[in-house]
């Protein structure tokens, strides 16, 4: 037994003496977390910076140089609108119900042409009454005139009899008094007939006022009334119209631009200009400064300038937006006109020692083109080759921009 007990004691483990296992290492965990963080940061950087690889740029159209354009440099550019110096909203002179309207938008009318008619029932009644009053006044005058003829004959007869002392002087004087009274009545009746005639003419004018005529020749730009509506020359509120339509004299079209106070000194009367309509950017219209309005806008710090259009065309209509370039001098007759196209000077850059421009293509990709430039045209440059009218070029392209790169259009791109 003792031997067995001793053996069992030898076999018993001493827990206090058994070394504890080493704690698990966290180095691998930190390495894994670092790798995951690097991956996440790389993804975020790709998401945030991937879209920024395409630079943001501004663009401008390539504009053809018209055959009528001059090579004179522009000293100032300004924006404005086409306006009509002669424009009228036509209305009736009296309040009434519209009977018929004879105009439509776009119709050409001549001076004095009937545009509309009002219901003339009241004017007709007034004219009928005035006609009756004229007839009555003339009848009264004729009656007094007949009485006066008899009274004058009686007075002459009694004058002879009183000289022969066959009648008393009192009878003669009574006949003379009656004759003079009838003369006064006839004068009053004639004046009444004249007044009645004046009233008839006024009634005729009132009837004519129900007919609306064109004050001058022009084009109808607005039709404001329909048959059955009430029109009035005074703004009475409610549903009452104040006009029949609007007529514009297209021969009176001109341009009004607002020039900043700081640059108004560059503008002079009769100064040649070049006008470009926003609707037709390839069409250059010669013009001339008419006048500088001697008043400034305090809020905008601008001065209004009137510009004449030297070419009239049906495509030019009021309120069109325009760009006006004030030129140093007008082109001389017979001088060579510049060829090619014009672009803002900022679109021309130097690449590999040569002039180039970047043309915007499909999917916002740019194409680098070698260009041959000509004269300076104000803030623009003449391009003789390499670009075509209607294309779009990049303004102030970055130095890193290369052929085939993609770009993003800025919010203010042209």
From TrEMBL:
Recorded coiled-coil stretches: 141-199
UniProt entry tagged with the keyword Membrane: yes
Start and end residues of each Multidrug resistance protein MdtA-like barrel-sandwich hybrid domain: 86-232
Membrane-crossing segments per the record: 29-49
Pfam family of the protein (one): RND-MFP_C
Domain CusB-like beta-barrel: 255-327
Domain Multidrug resistance protein MdtA-like C-terminal permuted SH3: 343-396
SUPFAM superfamilies the record matches: HlyD-like secretion proteins
GO CC annotations, alphabetized: efflux pump complex
Protein location: Cell envelope
Keywords: Coiled coil, Membrane, Transmembrane, Transmembrane helix, Transport
GO molecular-function terms, A-Z: efflux transmembrane transporter activity
Primary location class: other
UniProt record similarity statement: Belongs to the membrane fusion protein (MFP) (TC 8.A.1) family.
Protein name (Swiss-Prot/TrEMBL): Acriflavin resistance protein
Organism from which the protein derives: Pseudoxanthomonas suwonensis
